[in-house]
Amino acid sequence: MTTLQSSTQRTTTHDTPPAERLVLGAMMFGTAVDEPTSFAVLDRFVDAGGRWIDTADCYAFWASESGYGGQSEELLGRWLAARPGMRDRILLSTKFGAEPRDAAGWPASRTGLSAAAIREQITGSLRRLGTDRVDLVWAHMEDRSVPIEETADACAALVSDGVAARAGTSNHPAWRVERARRHAVAQGKEPVSVVQHAYSYLQPRPGTLTGNHRFGWLSDDLVDLAAVEGLDVWAYTPLLSGAYDNPAKPIPEVFDHPGSTQRLAVLDDVAAQVGASRGQVVLAWLTARGIRPMLGGSKVNQLDAAVAALALEVPAELLERMNEVDATAPRA
Prior knowledge:
Blueprint: H1 7-11, E1 23-25, H2 35-47, E2 52-54, H3 71-81, E3 91-96, H4 115-129, E4 136-139, H5 148-160, E5 167-170, H6 174-186, E6 194-198, H7 220-229, E7 232-236, H8 258-274, H9 278-288, E8 291-295, H10 300-310, H11 316-323
Parallel strand pairs: 1-2, 1-8, 2-3, 3-4, 4-5, 5-6, 6-7, 7-8
Helix pairs in contact: 3-4, 4-5, 5-6, 8-9, 8-11, 9-10
């Protein structure tokens, strides 16, 4: 079996600090996670060697009193302002396209991915973050009202203007990612080079929706595209919001099928053999496949456990057993 060979994997080696292989998701910072706790988690992440911090202009509109987002970016801006020199130590990732225009009408009413909307949104993000550049921008959720070529051109313009170092897509089907890339390359412009989707060791039942996005789950097509084109792959909700290890959080119903029973049995056995938790093994398995996990933890101890997971040495034969438990896992 071949392995996903993206630039994520090529740069993720045992010489890399474990935390550098992780993305810290700042979704609930400034809303459900208060400022002192958010600052403590951010400080610990950087102290551990972490670099990538991910946010979005719409975070977290559903948890805010106003019904609009921006709180996460604003908190990160305050944290950066309070930590002189920190901006040069971290890598910032933010998204656009999913912020409500009418708080009562989401998702039908949202900012979207037209060229004008993208430029307006990134301008707001930079203001809130207190910086003149980000290291990665994302088209957050697909916008079928706009030609994907227009979105691709707008993302490429952000790179050529020095506003962003790279661009990616989140929650887009593989065919639209490839169409955007093909258009950009044909125009001599910078193509999107990263994809971000939900993914974990357990796989949902076919035909089920795992969140708010029709194409939110990382599909076999996307894994194959990433392997062939050398795209980075980021995975959000890799720990199923704590369900692997927290008895108070049941495994979501969309994962309730015989394949999950088999996978959980293998996961339990591997975890026992390496002396780690289920969630830690899942994180180690993802990075072994060349996928960068995103942690949305709200506590320092959760972050410490994730960093420890990425330092795990899971024997190749155990990883292979996890891969081969059934035929549903995406293959590169």
